[in-house]
Amino acid sequence: VFWTLVGFIHFAGFCLSLRVFWEFWFNKRLHAPYTLMQSFAAILVPDLAYSSVYFFFHLANLLRGEEIADGPCDAIAFITFGIVIATFCGPVIVAAITFFKLMRLSQGDLNWSIPVWKLGLLLALPWLLGLVLAILVQQDGHLGSYRGLYCYATSWNQFVTGGLTMITFLLATALTILFYALAATDVRSTMKAAKQELAARKASRTIALRGVILVAAYFLTWILWTGVGFSSWLGVVPSIPLETVAALITAAQPIVDALILLNTPVIKANMYHRLHKQVSDFDLNPSMVNPSTEKSKPPDASITSIDSITSGESPTPVRISPQETSIIMATRPTTSVEDKVSSYSPSSSSSPAAH
């Protein structure tokens, strides 16, 4: 029953992760120079790996009627250690890039971004750390199947399994909260200095809300799983039903992450624009569409100022809103800002982004 139920959950997560991957391929808001939105690959990659590996793992168990052999399970355990550490570090990477992007924006640097190779290296580091931990666990002889629920460690009562997993989880949670708090505080103080009280409250509230959603999705889906392992390390043996529920909840994280990302306003706006363009291209009555109007409309025209501020995105060329101008003017001389802004037309503000 467990293999069937968790298999369906992982299948849904796998399909939604592929949908998010599709957006990363076709959605311009997830391409350079949108560094902040690109950083969500730190969440997508482990989600896609987790859901795909364990969907086929549980499917194989169902077809065989028993758990797969020790050799393949050990290989999956190696991958799982990388998935776990990368999953823990994903929100930290997103929050850190959010903070640095908004900090540079408040300093007037509209074009700051991270080179693709550096971003790739940043995303690879958690996987390398996870593989190192897997090697340590294997040397202790604890790498393998845990009660037929998943392939990770045969026992949680070792520090490198139950203890270190919980410490890494709590540290990642604390760092994510810290970076989002710093980002919200920095934006609020900069805009207040520019005498933009209302905009400061809206922008800081939006950033804080995004951080709360990201932390809640990550924390609530993993706390029970890591808590079960931590209690085993402390000498309290958890019940099998509790461990089963923990594994089921954790399996749902790729679903939650995908829904959050796909419902981010700046992502949805580009999705709707592409859909509208496709419908217009295949319209049976072309006279209803004005081609010159469609071509002249920028892809992200519906994405407005507060979304730009809270997502930290300032591609070149830039559509600078009054709020964005106030951030820059708080830290740079008025004359240089006016020279920078004069060639752009301001956009109107809209509802804040959610994630």
Write structural notes for this entry.
This protein has 355 residues and is mainly α. It has one domain: Rhodopsin 7-helix transmembrane proteins (Rhopdopsin 7-helix transmembrane proteins, Up-down Bundle), CATH 1.20.1070.10. The protein has 14 helices and 2 strands. The chain has helices at residues 2-26, 35-38, 41-64, 70-106, 116-139, 159-193, 197-233, 240-251, 253-262, 265-281, 291-296, 305-311, 322-329, 334-341, and strands at 143-146, 150-153. A two-stranded antiparallel sheet has the order 1-2. Helix 4 (70-106) runs antiparallel to helix 7. Residues 302-311, 342-355 have a biased composition (Low complexity). It comes from Coccolithus braarudii. Keywords: Membrane, Transmembrane, Transmembrane helix. The chain crosses the membrane at residues 6-22, 34-56, 76-100, 121-139, 159-185, 206-225, 245-267.
